[in-house]
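Summary for the steering committee. One of the milestones for this cycle was to obtain a three-dimensional model of the protein with fe (ii) ion bound, which we needed before selecting residues for the alanine scan. The sequence and ligand used are listed below.
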Amino acid sequence: MTTPDYAEKIPNNIALGEDRRLQRALESWQPNFLDWWETMGPTLPTQDVYLRTAVNVGREGWAHFAHVPMRDYRWGIFLADKNPDRRIGFGAHKGEPAWQQVPGEYRADLQRLIVIQGDTEPASVEQQRNLGATAPSLYDLRNLFQVNVEEGRHLWAMVYLLHAYFGREGREEAEELLHRNSGSQDAPRILGAFNEETPDWLSFFMFTYFTDRDGKYQLGTLKESAFDPLSRTCEFMLKEEAHHMMVGTTGVDRVVERTAQVMAENDTDDVAAHGVIPLLVIQKYLNFHYSVSLDLFGGETSTNVANYYTAGLKGRWLEERRKDDHTLTSDSIFVDALTDGEIGLTEVSALTGLNSDLRREYIADCEGGVKRWNKILSDAGLTHRLALPHIAFNRKVGAFAGIEATPAGEKLSAADWQARKGQWLPTNVDKTFVRSLMRPVYDRGKIAAWLAPPRNGINGKPFDYDYVHL
Ligand SMILES: [Fe+2]
Ligand SMILES: [Fe+2]
């Protein structure tokens, strides 16, 4: 069960060859996917890239590394191993056996959840498609492409579920996933952050740190699902996601490290003239990516999400580690709210507050990044610090969508916001400056001046390995 079959047109560990109908459906979707990859995927032509491909979903040695032409990457369908005794861990069906088929009453909701998750996967590939042209090193270029092919595979993962379990409607939704495009006027991606540009590598590192991390938390809730094929699909996706988190975390590390080094050497904050990104600009990019990522968690309260939980469709982050009754019918939670026009908290039932619960887990995780970046600053002998902005800052969704606030959480009038937002969010001048630093470095072992080299290479290879052949 665990070993994917690479002799198949579509590598898989679901015995696809035994289900001719599903196999035919997916094989007819495959050329459309490849067309999409050619037209909307990475624009930089390459001969081959040192990529990992999943070869086993078990605990050890799941990935195989080799130089492969990107078009020949074996996008496939891999689910984590089945636990035949798995039982539902929460909600009204707690204790019942997990579902191997979609219950009719939850069909529409499950399909919607899968489509929303599926829509984000190709969106990020579209957002990042031009970054190869300005890669700061071959190592970074390789990581970009690794993230891209895996987001493509995550699309496959969701399309598999749509094809296998949702009939004609599912197949239609699978087509739509290729027709919507990031930033498109006519058919944009479903969620706001996935229609934003990723025009430079600082944005890419911030995106993989903050926005991809939202994906990690969403997948974490779907991994708990009573619908077992969804749970197993997401469990394996989370394994790949760990690398994307690493790219973001160490990417920002390396930007901060280089900036701190130049600040300390020259005893100045004004490092733009030295060809590195000023800390204030890094902070502004952080503010932007963090605040748009907070929006991805939806409103502070949601009856839909309460229903999803009670039905068993979507659990909490690390559900089994929670020390409560896993039904939450008599619990309550304080959520962020505007009370009498002021930023505050209000008490709601734990079920309707589940979005807030997930967002808090996410925020605590994000604080970990800020802590490590501040350690880099203090190790360089600097007193400057980075910080996450207040939850009310620059929000378009939820309780604070209608107000403006400073990164410290003080309410502002609309006029003050307009006058001051350039202090906190990247201005055109900042973006133009960052873009001016984005010049490709394709020589083995070389790196752009605005970025420190990584501590480790990929799969035990050194930094100066030939990760990409152009
Ligand atoms: Fe993904
Ligand atoms: Fe990802």
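Key point for the committee: The chain has a mean pLDDT of 95.
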